[in-house]
Amino acid sequence: MTPPATGSTLGPMSTIELPDEIAAALAAAAAQRGVSIDELAAETISARFGPIRRKLSFAAAGSSTTGRSAAEAEQLLEEGGFGIDSADR
Fold first, then answer.
1. Domain span holding position 30
2. Contact criterion met (CB below 8 Å) for 33 and 40
3. Is residue 79 part of a domain?
4. Is residue 80 domain-resident?
């Protein structure tokens, strides 16, 4: 890859020249997704070079891997006698 020429800049309305095969693939992918070529190009470039979103490792803490809802889990606990104080019996 050749580095950009000194002093070249991309602004909000820049034109980018692509090889024919890349332009055709971009057009086909945009048509398949039902978006414009400009929208797909902007989305793709933004995903690669845009701001990086941090992934929070604890964000899914406590999420269910069984597919049970919280209400179902509470019902199972109640049926097993968990969560019931002796004063409630």
1. 18-51
2. yes
3. no
4. no
Angle at 43 between CA 18 and CA 13, to 5 degrees: 60
Q: What is the pLDDT of residue 9?
A: 74
pTM over 0.85: no
Backbone angles phi, psi at 30, to 5 degrees: -65, -45
Helix ranges (DSSP H) in the chain: 20-33, 37-49, 70-79
- Asked whether residue 63 is assigned to any structural domain, the reply reads no
Which of the pair, 10 or 33, is modelled with greater confidence? 33
CA neighbor of 82 nearest in space, from 61, 73, 69: 73
Over 70: is that where the pLDDT of 84 sits?
no
Residue 83 lies in a domain: no
Q: For the chain, how many structural domains are there in total? A: 1
Q: Is the pLDDT at 78 greater than 70, yes or no?
A: yes
